[in-house]
Amino acid sequence: MKNIIDSCYNTFKVFILFTGCTVLFYYGIMWINQEYQNYHRYDEPEGAAVKVTKMVEERDEGWLQRLVFFYHYGE
């Protein structure tokens, strides 16, 4: 009888530990979601922002040059 009670007690402890970790993980994910929900990644930059790309004029190259470019860069 004592063995059954110890087994039930240990099962209950594991259940409480699992439930606590699950609740902690859930609220952690909810907190992270709330932090980044109002984060606007595509807003105009402020301050001394510098544009790092520029438009390159398309050149009309032959198919062989394009094939060599494809094999060289894997594009």
Automatic annotation (TrEMBL):
This is DUF4227 family protein. Keywords: Membrane, Transmembrane, Transmembrane helix. It comes from Sutcliffiella horikoshii. The keyword Transmembrane helix applies. InterPro entries: DUF4227. It comes from the Bacteria. The chain crosses the membrane at residues 12-32. The lineage of its organism: Bacteria, Bacillati, Bacillota, Bacilli, Bacillales.
